[in-house]
Amino acid sequence: MAVTYVVGGLNIIAINEIAPDMLNKLAEAMRLARKAVQDAVEGTVVALHVVSNALRTGLDLGEAISLLHPEFARHLTVHFRLSTSTEIFQALEALNRNLQRLVVGMRSADLRLAEYGYNWMAPKGSGVIAYVKMPLSYAFSGGPAVNGCLNKDPGKFNNPADVNIRFDRLRDTAIGDLVNTLIHECTHKYLATADLLVSGLPFKSVAEYESTWRAIGVDAPMGRLADLTPVQAINDAYVVTNYVLYMPLVDLRASAAQMELTIRGANQGIGAVNSNRRVFDSAGNDDL
Predict the structure, then answer these.
(1) Cα 45 from Cα 93, distance rounded (Å)
(2) How far is CA 20 from the centre of its chain?
(3) Phi, psi of 149 (to 5 degrees)
(4) 243: nearest Cα among 252, 258, 253, 233
(5) What confidence category does residue 155 fall into, taking pLDDT thresholds of 50, 70 and 90?
(6) Residue 143, Cβ neighbours under 10 Å: how many?
(7) How many domains are contained in the chain?
(8) What is the CATH classification number for the domain harbouring 193?
(9) pTM to 2 decimal places
(10) Which helix (H) or strand (E) holds 12?
């Protein structure tokens, strides 16, 4: 007979009883996972606000994107394979929407962790430590990573399946690895992410990784991540999870304010030249 628990608002169902210390470890890992996603939401919201506000006050899109802290901008563009200002803006909009949906789902009663083997048709093989069963339509035709676009809204996606985890490995699993697994699996459940990068990313922190390679005068290799399109990357569980867990701790507002002063000062300095040029460009042949 199954055993059920509710710990810290987290619903758990197990085949056998879970030791109290392991139950607490699981609940603590979910608390940390929720906090990491919430922190990523806040950072993404601030970045989107910086860009959107700059657009409203007269800067063009390229100038607005340049207000982002360089370390955050690199974190964003490397993870999601972005190269143009339009792609960056669309990705920020999509991440804002997706991560807010993710954190709401992870805090909801809809989320239940089930012991591996409780639900039928569990994947075979000891190497699989967690999974979420996806709708058959996604299994046959692919989800957003195949059929989506950069700013696809997952709002209509609903997957009632449990997040299944091998509870018998809790004691030997580091808390950080457990946090990673919980976020990863929840992106499957709430965002319909795919597992395109089954070997994972070649880095954790983009800044540290690139700095290490830069020190020896070599461009940092990106492995299979380099082969993904922006649509595939923003809908991949490994990429989204790493983006969440290794968000740079930078002051986006202060950096944007300083950069904006520089840009507006430069624009004022060349304003007269631009105004004269616009008058010249607007003159027709009959006026010359």
Answers:
(1) 9
(2) 32
(3) -130, 175
(4) 233
(5) low
(6) 21
(7) 1
(8) 3.40.390.10
(9) 0.88
(10) strand 10-14
